Each structure stands twice: as C-alpha cells, then as structure tokens.
Amino acid sequence: MVDDSTIKEVRDRFRAPGKVVVLTGAGVSAESGVPTFRGKEGLWHNYKAEDLATPEAFLRDPALVWQWYAWRRDLIRAVVPNPAHYTLAAMERLLDDFTLITQNVDGLHAIAGSRNILELHGNIWRTRCTLCGRVYEDRERDLSELPYCEYGSCDGLLRPDIVWFGESLNETVINQAYATSQDADTFLVVGTSSVVQPAASLAGVAKQSGAYIIEINIDPTPLTGIVDAILTGPAGKVLPKLVMTK
Ligand code: NAD
Ligand code: ZN
To answer: Residue 42 CA: which ligand 1 atom is closest?
Structure first.
C-alpha cells in the first residue's frame, strides 16, 4: 500500500526544480472503464488483442479488425477522464518542465486538459489510408462498412491510425520520447505493464541518466525492481495525493 513517507518523498521530488516526465499506460484509463489489454475484460468475442491489433490480422480480415475497433470506439466514446487524467493535466499547469508520454490511444488525456502529449501508439479517433497515407480525424465515421479514402480518386482502404504489435513507432515521436526521458530528473510510470517495447525501455533510459523513478500500479511489473519509489494502488486514487500547490 502507499505509505505517507513515500508520498511525502515523491511530493518533494515534484516540488524541486527539474524536468518531470510521465509515461502512462492502459491502467490510467481503467478507472474510466476502458479495459486494459491484459485484464480479462479486455477480451472481445474471445479474441485476444494480440490477435487483432496486428498488420497480419488486418490483411487477413480487415472487416473483423474494424468491427473490433468500432466496438472499442463505442466503448471509449461513452467514458470520461478520471482523477488520474485530471491530476496529470493539473501537474502540467503547475510544473515548469513537464512532458506526458502515453501508450494510450483513447484521447482521454487531451480531454482532461493535458497539452504537451507524446502519443507513442497513435490515436483511436484517427484513421489512415493504406494507399496514400492520408490521415483523417474522424471520431464520428460510420464503421458499419469498411471505410475507404475519400482523397481524389485514391479509394484506398483506411486503417486505424494506431501502432500495431510488430510495427515500428513513428520515428519523430519515439526519438522525442527518448530524448525527453534522457533529460528527465523525475520519471513517473503509471498504469503500464512495462512489457510493450520500446515504451518499456524509456524508464530504464531515464534511470541510466540519473533520474528518480516512481511507479504507480496496482500490481508489480518487470520495472518494479529498479524504481526508487513504488506507490501501489489505483492511479485515480494515488495520483491526486501527489498534487501540490506551488
Ligand atoms: P497493459 O494492458 O499491458 O497493462 C495495464 C497495466 O495497468 C497493468 O500493469 C495493470 O496492473 C495496471 N493497472 C490496471 N488498472 C490500474 C489502475 N486502476 N491503476 C494503476 N494501474 C493499473 O497496458 P499497457 O502497458 O499500456 O500496454 C498495452 C498496449 O495496449 C499499449 O500499447 C496501448 O496502446 C494499448 N491499449 C491502450 C488502451 C487505451 O488507450 N486506454 C487500452 C488498452 C490497451
Ligand atoms: Zn488515400
């Protein structure tokens, strides 16, 4: 559980001058009602996410993959940010040098008011043409049929603008994430299983450069052994305890 002396130590860290970097994962949105991939409620029609969020699955059966994303869009559309998202947005306003790196694709950080966000794995509210690469912001797109590109006569099949398992991350975004992690004085990891690479390596990069590492999670992860402070508990309960007035 979270003891008061660790909370105090972490609060003092945030009060000190320096660069704060936060990496979030699916656990941050769990209390909003968005299932994590590794929790059992993350299953859809008995498919595991790893069997649907891949380029191979999309090539084999794009309609199936789109049905899954339509289901996930409907689920996410119905939820709102929770205190974890709001606390991170407040920290950005309070601290001089703050960067949020997220693996989440749900857009809830932006709705909560975060501005300086590096989205490592894309965004579920965007689609991308598999032929011309054009990106659409299309939260309200009708997905009852396969979506196609409307640019000129392209007509290419659209895919979610999401980084799937086995795909490379956007080079600019991951390079920025590495650079900012390397510069971090304090690095907070929240609600991620720390098994999906390269995101999982960012805390290690920060640690090697001398950053103080804090982890918030309900369970231990492969990272737990190397962190400086462990705050065990739901992100929506733990994070608000860390907010400080300037
Ligand atoms: P994950 O599903 O692998 O792990 C979730 C982690 O959150 C676990 O370690 C779990 O113990 C922890 N957790 C669960 N509830 C929590 C809570 N209330 N408070 C704190 N921690 C909690 O998620 P991941 O590490 O982000 O990696 C999975 C991949 O799936 C990512 O690439 C991500 O893009 C994608 N994904 C995104 C969403 C989303 O956008 N909300 C949801 C599911 C999966
Ligand atoms: Zn196109």
So the answer is: 43
- CA atoms of 158 and 97, how far apart (whole Å): 37
Lookup: tokens for 2 = 């979270």
User: Do the strands 158-162 and 186-190 form a parallel or antiparallel pair, or are they unpaired?
Assistant: unpaired
pLDDT digits (tens, 9 = 90+) for 21-46: 999 999 999 999 999 987 766 677 77
Q: Does pLDDT of 246 surpass 60?
A: no
SS3 content of the chain, % helix, strand, coil (to 5): 40, 20, 40
Question: Has residue 147 got a pLDDT over 80?
Answer: yes
Q: Which has the closest alpha carbon to 66: 132, 154, 130, 119? A: 130
How far, in Å, from the CA of 232 to the mean position of ligand 2? 46
Is ligand 1 within 6 A of the CB of residue 106? yes
Q: 158 CA distance to ligand 1 centroid (A)?
A: 26
Nearest residue by C-alpha to atom 15 in ligand 1 = 27
